[in-house]
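Pasting as-is:
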Amino acid sequence: MKIKKKNFLSVVLATVLLSVSLQPVASAQQNVMSDPRLNEISQKYDTEFVVLSDSELEEVKQNGPLLSFTDLDEYESFLADTISELEKFDTDQNSVLEVPEKTDSTISPMAQTSTTLSWWAPFSGGLSGIFTWKNIALVYNYENNSNGLPYFTGVSKINSYISGMQVAVSWTQTTGTKTYSNTCWDKDTANFVVQGYYLIGAEINGLPIGAKINDTWNRSLQLEKPGRGCF
């Protein structure tokens, strides 16, 4: 089969132009990702850096625009402030939920109920006024003991997420576990440990990168009978 010389030259020229146009992009990625300072920051803050894929870039930009930095010193300052705020405000807290007593005429013993634990967690990264909420959604079952007091019989569908973001950050849950404990009576409290990572998007010299920061959320939910405390 013969290929017309003119068409063949057009294909070769297009291929060469495409290769040349991609070289600056590849060079920018290599310059940023191979910078020794970025490796130092990674080790200092126990953070993994990745070049954002198209899907990751779209996800983080749903919460806000990418912050741009011209050098790694500015970027490290932003990252340090962000990690400091995460560690400062995310402390273990207990939520109390009043639930009605289950009877044959009110609630089916097999009924499942959903709730969401939400708490304010600033995530400004040095930018005043920017904050977010952390949330753990779950489904739970409970029964009443011989004294009419509620206790957990099961918890499922533990799903965590962030909301209220104004910067390019996403959260991915990797594990979610629960245990039971006794605050006022047997199994009246469910304790949750959620592990995952933030992907904090930014542009460094025009290259969109993400900092993967591991975090653990600890929360507890206590069932309480209306009008009655622990005593």
